[in-house]
Queue: 2 jobs
Job 1
Amino acid sequence: MTVVETGSSKRVTGTRLLRREDPALLTGEAKFIDDIVQPDALCMALLRSPMAHARIVSVDSSVAKRMPGVVAVYSGSDLRDEWLAPMPCAWPVTGDMKNPPHFPVAADVVNFVGDAVAVVLASDKNAAVDALASIDVSYEPLPVVSNLEDALADKDLVHPALGTNVSYVWTLEPDKAKVDQAFASASHVVKSRFIQQRLIPSAMEPRGVLAVPHPYGGEYTIFSSTQIPHILKLMLSLTVGISEAKLRVIAPSVGGGFGSKLNVYPEEILALTLARKLHRPIRWTEERSENSLATIHGRGQIQDIELAADADGKVMAVRVNLVADMGGYLQLLTPGVPLLGGFLYHGLYDVPAYSFTCTGVFTNKTPTDAYRGAGRPEATFAIERSMDALARKVGIDPAEVRRRNFIAPEKFPYASAAGLIFDSGNYLSNLELALERVGYEGIRAEQVRRRAEGSRKHLGVGLSCYVEMCGLAPSKVLGSLSYSAGGWESATVRILPTCKVQVVAGTTPHGQGHETSWSMIVADRLGISPGDIEVLHSDTAIAPYGMDTYGSRSLSVGGSAIYMASEKVLAKAKLIAAHKLEVSPEDLDYQDGEFRVKGSAEKSYALSAAAFEAFTAHDLPEGVEPNLEATVTWDPPNFTFPFGTHVAVVEVDEETGQTDLLRYLSIDDVGNQINPMIVEGQIEGGIAQGVAQALYEEAIYDESCNLLDSTFIEYLIPSAAEFPNFELGSTVTPSPTNPLGVKGVGEAGCIASPPAVINAIVDALTEFGIENIDMPASPERVWKAIGAARGNGTQVD
Amino acid sequence: MKITTIVNGRSYSKDVEPRTLLVHYLRDGLGLTGTNVGCDTSSCGACTILLNGESVKSCTVLAVQADGKELVTIEGMATESGLHPIQKAFQENHGLQCGYCTPGMVMAAASFLKENPKPSEHEVREALEGNLCRCTGYHNIVKSVMAAAKAMEGVVL
């Protein structure tokens, strides 16, 4: 399936090679953070504020300090002098963005339920947790800012010193006059408000950290359940004030992240700080309810979107106004997350005029940050729900309104009104394939039949066509968006003396199967077996350079770097072969481990011989260094733009409001596929998370900003029983942006699925005239909407 | 107090605090860290093991309740001759991604397939309701369990 150059006659890329990661994970051999044995470690536990907004009057830990096993107890003020800098926010999206400094343990004011106020170190976890209950904290309550509209009105202030709850206003409006003109001359204007509820990412493995000091060597090893060991190392150095050269960060097996482990957290900084202070290893393991309170949340937006369209339903302009919930503080990427969707509210439609504004506001809730899709699910939801509304207004089928608006294949590379260059796409044929596979006409006919017979079980079909931008990213573009880091990726490919290969990757997997996929890329390029390739990663001492794993970037950026490093090391081996065969390198072909002289194939030199020659260095050509190793750091010229069509078929029971997901079909185009098995797995998992947003999940707060669903009993992570089998298909439109022609797949399912499901529910409820159901579309919410639409309250006749 | 258990065929006698949960006894007491903890409300099933042949969430059982009983954890599934058919089916059907829920899924599947060796897909989905996975969307987990059932046809567990 892939089109890249290969040195193998037995292509591995494009096949469903089983994952090399699995045996260790299936047997308990894999080591997650809490499995790492460190016998002399102190257990750390944090006392968390039960108040959403309060002044800390006093912290009395005298009793706790005397409890058995307790080694130390610190309040925020005890630790005031330990920090070199506040918690990092790496994305100051505007020059005047307000970012109140915050520290790992609050000393004066708490700003959300879960904010740490004291820390206990004890000989074991039970002792540490027992001691927490004996710490007496006196709070003076402050007014709580609980919802986005109140926050925006500055009724009460989260951070009074700022004088406002608004952190920033960010605008993307390349041509305002054009937008105004489009709305003035529109035949149809579709205006909608959508709510992106807060979500709790809920990786199955909670977070954890183990900081090990080496007091006599003056160094520290930090193990963390993180997606970003490289970024974490840098940020730990900057906040704790330990030289980067003295820090080694290792991400062991990581039990899922979904963006929630793409952060720098108080506990990581604390563990290192206290390891330095006490010269003892410090371990912290997050509990699930802590994970719900103290690990970042996702989404949390009010979206106002307007489309201006002509009489045929051709969209002329999109205007969007967001209010985005930052929570109590800005975490690593908090302010930038809504903006990652800010370029994509016109979806995959050819829209000439565009306006987007986002206002980031503080509330007294857990900080938000990147959660799978980060900005793009929100954008896709708003445009895809709006396209259905437009179809109703124009009086055409939802599929037809999309056909009329797609960017045509011949327009690629396509310069969008928002300022992006879409790399490649073929949207119409993708949609048509999805409609054909799902049997769209048949479903519509069944719907008509059911309606005619007055069925109380309403059939609905919902479409979601999506495009996303991933493969973060060209460093220059990130710079222009005020992001404080680059978007490159680094890889080293090393051919060892026995012709086994080491790949050193700067990306950090947490379930994506990188070791398998990276070995496949190298196997094809070098013409050797994937089994002879070792993949090293997630340890800053082994892989010193990397920008880590998020934003569906690992394959398109990191995989490309690996491919290029393979080419580079092969080119070096070729110099050695040419020298040995006494020909020019241009005269050599390479396949399956052998260099052969063009036209006289009997004259050959093995890669394994070159590897050993490079090792002994007895007879290398002039100017060629010993060892076969090549490093490439690649900065992509553009983002990549995966796309596809998702179709949900639902049945809504008007008597109970229950939605059953009958079928779910997707046709995704993620460019070339290295391992289709892994690609499908990523999409399936993404679909489930998106369906969960549509139907089940929401972080629910009361008026005092208490999180009401902080455990898995209340927060509805769906189980296997809630889903049908997914029906997957693909089209392949290679990306011209990178040498592998790949686009990225980690977030696509999650980006596409929420609007497919809600469009299906609204479609099912057409006869009630219901235009919108907020997420999650719980039975209660749907039932009430039906009742309200009938004009008889919540009664069902 | 002292308890004796047979874990993966090996006998252990150990002192435990009365409040010790079985999962902590396995992980911290015996060093069998393959069994994971994913929640604190017995909701996620990551800690599922077999207790006298039946699946239990080892975070809902006190270690003392396991006194005198036989336990199988994920470490007891593979043998010298390789992965257990359920483990193999999970690999062959890409039934895991991050792998954190996987030991619990495998143990829950082992118990379920003993009760119902020829399940329908629907029955598999219902049976795994107490085991949460955030990565796979369950699609391939269901496929894995169906494949394991087929592979184990006629095999007495």
Job 2
Amino acid sequence: MRMKHVVSILALAACTTAQAQAATTIRVHYAIPTIWAETQEILAEEFMAANPDIEVVLDGPAESYADGVQRLLRESVAGNLPDVAYVGLNRWRILEARGLTQPLDPFIDDEDFASMGYTKALRSLGQYNGKQHALGTSASTLVMYVNPDLVQQAGGSMDDFPTTFDGVIELAAKIDALGDNIDGIWVDRHDWRFQSLLGAHGGRPMTADESDITLDSEAGIAAATLYKRFAEEGGMKSYNDNQARQAFPAGTLGIMLESSSLLTRFTEAAGDRFEVTVKSLPLATDDVDSVYFPTGGSAIVMLTDDDEKQAAVWKYMQFVTGPTGAKLVVENTGYAPTNALVLEDEAYLGSFYEQNPNAKTAHAQVAAHAGPWYAYPGAEGVAVTDLIAAALVEVTEGADPEQTMTELAQTLRDRLGMSN
Amino acid sequence: MIGLSRRARDGLTDLWLVGPASLALLVLIFVPVVAVAILSFTDYQFGARTFNFIGLENYKTLLTDPIGRRAITNTLLYVAIVIPFSMIFALLVAIGLHGMASWAAPLSRILRAAYFLPVAATLVAMAIAWQMLLHPSIGLVNTFLNAIGLPGQAWLSDRGLVLYTLAAIGIWQTIGYNMVLFLAGLAAIPGHLYEAAACDGADRQWERFWTVTWPMLGPTTLFVLVVTATNSFRVFETVATLTKGGPAFASDTLVYALYREGFVYFKAGYASAITIVFFVFVLVLTLTQFGLLERRVHYR
């Protein structure tokens, strides 16, 4: 009896070691645990259940995408990069520029890939110079959060909500007139928000080959003028992002243009005070095909150069960006999916959208107009985004939009080394 | 061991005692400082494989670029506000509490703890409290101002105001610490000096302060000055949590710029140059203070 016991333990031990040897372990890096921690656990569990020969180990998460990229760079200097990483959609090119990301093209069969829900627009989020370096894992675009109570008090209607910027500004002015502590509208003076308003006018921040800045184009000046009008007509205060994110749920701000990823947070923060409602951003051009909304969120990149690990990582990447993964991401984070199958096929998220009409509005906008969040090339690429923000501060405080954007574009060309 | 003289053995003991700490200092402080100094002459990008030496280019940018210069002037202005106010208020509070200790000891202790609270509390948590208080439309400060008929201000998002708001928070945060130091200094003043001053006819509060308290507090004041100066030069947390240097760089300071350039923009070479400039500032300031004040400080 005793002998038998020992044998069975030995057999069991042998069995576990054999399994442990067979397993490929992949290390996964992610950021923003407040949004992602649970989702990452679920994704890893579900993936391992489907692929028992691969073990997923989650690194301790970074606090933000900015911290995450810093950590990855440090780890690359120290030689202990994880095998695969979730990074901000606007940050994977920092890794790409340093040769840390592995191109995914060898793994992708273009035709099959499209039929698996990776549309051209969605693939564009992770492409640079014709190479696929990243796959989107979650998406968000700029939407309008509206306080229906204030709209009603101002004599507006939620059913007949304005679909042009002129109409929105007019409504904002009426809301602003409701009281000293009530503001009409607010949008952050920030690169991504500006790119969104620019995209709504069909404009782009740069030429397609990234050789010249086009912020001083007609669309660029029109987008900057919106900021000026928001401030002068719509009662936009000079809040920073935190202040505005406190004011809106408190019920003192009528319309807030913010990332669709904040939906859950706003809905919870507003609680019973009012029913947070999402409206899609107005399009300010007749040429609807030229409209794009820069897409925030996260992408997944492959970092390992080991063949065996690459194969395992690719399986993992396909899983988390495929319909099963995308469904889990949407249900758990509030981000929009980056796989077209889950949007087309109601079997995946039909009932979720029925319960969350706000999410449906936001996600439909992503599906219709998702586009890359342009990162400016070169060493000064991140630094210039703060110059754009500073120029928008000038505009909201009364500077002339055309002159400001012309000067800004010239400054950016100098800083980015674009001869013009 | 036998062959060594007593002197040599003593020498070895000294080396053994001072060695580990010196080595740690060398490896952990001096080597990184030298590395940073070298990096400041390069265009190194965080995480990049290569870099080029570009001479004094980074320093030139820092001193000529409007944003770099703004960070320097903002820091100097911040320091110029925080040092005098936090020291004067801390001294007043300390004298008050020291006097109060003789007739209302428990109250004095409670107030002392209250003044010290901002020092003990986590600044990031405090910053969130400040953010709520200073909110332009729903904050307590503006609500109060409106109630008494004054216009509210955009404390943290008005470009002309934001640096002064941060300085006020800096003063609030420093008073408690300085107060404790001054209290220790006050407690160390021997009572017989006041008696002697009284014999010489200096028995009014003001005279007692000028003839005894202030001269005897000299060493403490010097210490407080140096600590406050270096601390306010290092202002970072409030900037990072409350304004991120904005709006439009209006509250950018040297250390925040250093962080931004190095860890947000990944321009490690430029950030190193800022570090060296910051280091030189603090060094010069400290040496001047010691040089100027040491001679005039009254040590017992």
